[in-house]
Amino acid sequence: MAGGPPKALPSTGPHSLRDMPHPLAGSSSEEAVGGDSTPSPDLLMARSFGDKDLILPNGGTPAGTSSPASSSSLLNRLQLDDDIDGETRDLFVVVDDPKKHVCTMETYITYRITTKSTRVEFDLPEYSVRRRYQDFDWLRSKLEESQPTHLIPPLPEKFVVKGVVDRFSEEFVETRRKALDKFLKRITDHPVLSFNEHFNIFLTAKDLNIYKKQGIALLTRMGESVKHVTGGYKLRTRPLEFAAIGDYLDTFALKLGTIDRIAQRIIKEEIEYLVELREYGPVYSTWSALEGELAEPLEGVSACIGNCSTALEELTDDMTEDFLPVLREYILYSDSMKSVLKKRDQVQAEYEAKLEAVALRKEDRPKVPADVEKCQDRMECFNADLKADMERWQNNKRQDFRQLLMGMADKNIQYYEKCLMAWESIIPLLQEKQEAKFPVTAVLS
Amino acid sequence: MEQATPDPERQLQPAPLEPLGRSDAGLGVTVDEEAERAREEGSGGDTMTHNNFWLKKIEISVSEAEKRTGRNAMNMQETYTAYLIETRSVEHTDGQSVLTDSLWRRYSEFELLRNYLLVYYPHIVVPPLPEKRAEFVWHKLSADNMDPDFVERRRIGLENFLLRIASHPILCRDKIFYLFLTQEGNWKETVNETGFQLKADSRLKALNATFRVKNPDKRFTDLKHYSDELQSVISHLLRVRARVADRLYGVYKVHGNYGRVFSEWSAIEKEMGDGLQSAGHHMDVYASSIDDILEDEEHYADQLKEYLFYAEALRAVCRKHELMQYDLEIAAQDLASKKQQCEELATGTVRTFSLKGMTTKLFGQETPEQREARIKVLEEQINEGEQQLKSKNLEGREFVKNAWADIERFKEQKNRDLKEALISYAVMQISMCKKVGFGFNEDICIFRSTYKFL
Predict the structure, then answer these.
(1) Domain presence at residue B409
(2) Contact yes or no for B68/B81 (Cβ under 8 A)
(3) Between B218-266 and B273-288, two packed helices, what is the crossing angle to 10 degrees?
(4) What is the pLDDT of residue A18?
(5) How far apart are CA B43 and CA B30, in angstroms?
(6) Which chain B residue has the Cα nearest residue A286?
(7) Is A138 on the interface with B (CB under 8 A)?
């Protein structure tokens, strides 16, 4: 999943008025706690657990095939293993085992969340709880509230738009499970978010509803302060680097949206193609029944087309289950990131406004009042957090899309390989000489 | 290979390319020798080699198609396509071919030739013409007869038609066919002078016979069913194939939309840029590859179409048999009733209802002289009838024998040709899979190399 936290803090924005780094800048990232812990005796076990829980959706092709498909996913796995070796991981989370619950009022799905950790924040080394989508939604809102300077990963879509999709079908549940697993893993990999108390409760509490009801305010100092930023200030100009990020996100989301639409159209066309193929193959069988010498060849062609049809069906399923969800996820991600950018703008705006107000007061000894200082702190921390998160996001994005595009190319190759095999296998059948079958044809034809 | 007794008028006597001295009488021997030679050498441009009975090797090709305008029978201006037919004779010794004849013909003249052959060789499965109008089209193909792709495929179909005739042991010797290849002007008049249109069986007569015949040869009945079902299944196949082609076209073309968006996306990315550009480029190549793929598939469809139309030719032979058989049955029936009449007159008993019986009752008995006269007439008619029946029987048996021989030849040809067609279809699919798969593989290599980790 993620690369490690950046080695050095990115510098604060160009509008900094101070030369010395503010003491707040150091502690806000809180990375010291995670990175320097001595490797626990559980690490070996934890690491193998990590291997398993990082198995990619596109990986795991059968060992026997020599196709490029298997070698590419193997390569993926190796590279990720390298990452794990490179750093000490002390928190592992897996989402699996979906189960359907039928109650009087409603029917819903829960997922098992298994946590293994050596961190002090966890009382036990291992936890296993059950959560439903609502709970994930709650967690995300809490994270957005309490860590407003960070990019919170997106959740899979809440509502199913098309009435045709079955909320309880195997494919839908599996797609959702994968997305929820990714969501938690992204938080796990984040040096700040993974220590969030709401996250901890989500992973460990026996009954989450108690916490939800009590509405425990577990806001960090930063969250608290940002919460009180009034929205009345207008930012004159967004600093260059954040403007660039904003522009990038706009274009990015736009392009992904287009790709999503094209992909959906392709799936639709492929399904219609499949329908015709399913009628095409059997006609050769019908013909085969009329013939003598040609019976076997025609039957062979019919079976071959049948195999190609099945291969195509598998391809379209993969597109729907693996390709589209990731696109949608990144579109949602971009949207939430843009709102974080806006919040950052507000923080900066407030600071600049207050600073201007001070400058206009025309005192003999210009002294920066405490609250203006606080604003500056806020702004600089926000900027730092955001930049760090952006870099992390870019890394993850590169990795995710590399996997995605390679995966799709893989799946297409697999489809063409299956078709190739089917057609190659009937060539000898078609070329079979008549002599071998002479006694039969004399009777039939 | 059996041959029907060739009509001296219609067969080439002696064959113009034959060395002098050979006659049809000795054809049986000559034919076998030549068949051997022809099988070894093959005739140019023709895959069905071992039935070529031209004594000198010739090559026939329909090499060009040209749009023309002219005036039709109603003196109205029309546009049509003319096809250039070139005939070359090939020297045994050095394999060089010399252009011996070259003329232009339009589709209607080909039709005329075929209709003539159908009348004079009813026991032969006459090769079919390519379709008159484009059918089984999918959306990209134009249904317009003037469309260059259609014209090109028709040119190939017409060439195939001529080659099939030239390689048929019996048809290739036909004079009118020879003149078709060599006599530019007045050929239509020559054909019409044969009066073949008058000799053609009326469709109504044939239909009547089909329903009323009592004892057709079982093999022909089975063959008729087979050809009906073959027609039906190939039509179905062609229709669905056209729909499949249409859908496949859609799938490929929509992939083309990826090209632009990937390119635009690559513009805002740093490390990912190259990979995305390559993906976009590949999608464009992928989308444009469908045109060639489907054009190749049209060739397969044409091969199937030829046999769709061949099914109709099979039906024609069956119809002729039914007609002849029905004719025979009617003649036999007629003879039997005349014999009975004769017997009744002779013995004086009226067993069946007859007009004579009625008039006798109404107008009185006839005189013995009148009766004698009538018996004589009947006896003459019975004699004639018996002769006719004998010859009809003979004709019928000859027909069945010769027709069945040609049908066996046709079956072999059909099995060979369709197997070839299926093989080349499979090969087409294989090469398509390889080409496309290779493209995707390239993509993976580029993704792998251009994406970098931090």
Answers:
(1) yes
(2) yes
(3) 150
(4) 28
(5) 18
(6) B233
(7) no
